[in-house]
């Protein structure tokens, strides 16, 4: 089975660097399945898990926005933050979810709802990735 190189990079570290068979990512305008020899493109990503197929296994990686660049034999994802399932602190993500939900439910003007909505998306992405 042919492969492509997947690199996921944040300002802090290289989160993932492996040869894989397929990458399924959530672009802002829809889901994208990327196989080797895909046409080159760049797309912004949603805050969501990406799905990576490698041999018979499949894994999720939490990707918190950013961009995906597809080249012939390589996919590079640049994001503010990203985590593999094993690196996710589930109780921290659950606390972040609670906090964001309380802020969204609150009538208190001090909370920026857009910011709370994004924090909720990150927390849900981490919970989903960690429970894969
Ligand atoms: P929190 O409110 O818990 O800090 P957050 O969504 O505001 O969550 P980010 O700003 O997205 O956090 O991330 C800051 C750093 O902490 C990044 O390096 C990110 O990978 C890491 N991080 C955040 N939450 C978790 C988690 N639940 N498990 C592991 N790493 C996390």
UniProtKB/TrEMBL annotation:
CDD domains: F1-ATPase_delta (cd12152). GO terms for cellular component: plasma membrane; proton-transporting ATP synthase complex. It is a peripheral membrane protein. Residues 4-82 form the ATP synthase F1 complex delta/epsilon subunit N-terminal domain. Residues 87-131 form the ATP synthase epsilon subunit C-terminal domain. One of its GO terms (molecular function) is ATP binding. Keywords: ATP synthesis, Cell membrane, CF(1), Coiled coil, Hydrogen ion transport, Ion transport, Membrane, Transport. Residues 90-117 form a coiled coil. Its main location: membrane. It comes from the Bacteria. It is found in: Cell membrane. Produces ATP from ADP in the presence of a proton gradient across the membrane. Belongs to the ATPase epsilon chain family. F-type ATPases have 2 components, CF(1) - the catalytic core - and CF(0) - the membrane proton channel. CF(1) has five subunits: alpha(3), beta(3), gamma(1), delta(1), epsilon(1). CF(0) has three main subunits: a, b and c. This is ATP synthase epsilon chain. It comes from Cohnella thailandensis. The lineage of its organism: Bacteria, Bacillati, Bacillota, Bacilli, Bacillales.
